[in-house]
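Worked Example 4.2. Consider the chain below.
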Amino acid sequence: MRAIEATGEIDKKGVLRLDGPLSLREKKVKVIILMSEEDEEIEEKRWLSAMTSNPAFDFLHQEQENQYSLQDGEPFHD
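Applying the procedure from the previous section yields the following structure tokens:
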């Protein structure tokens, strides 16, 4: 797989708009979006909010998922 760098913006509808045309034509591509750190904090908050309200994660609230207590293991200090 090869990489091509391009810049652009994501509009209010969530559509990626590049600053200019690419030399590639009629190709399927995979896009990785890199943002500045200030946007990163906002996105992390949105992701955490979505994760906590997404029904796909409801199973984590089930009693059998509550396997560990504060007395298990040892503290981790980073």
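The chain is about 20% helix and 10% strand. The chain has a mean pLDDT of 86. Compare this with Example 4.1 before moving on.
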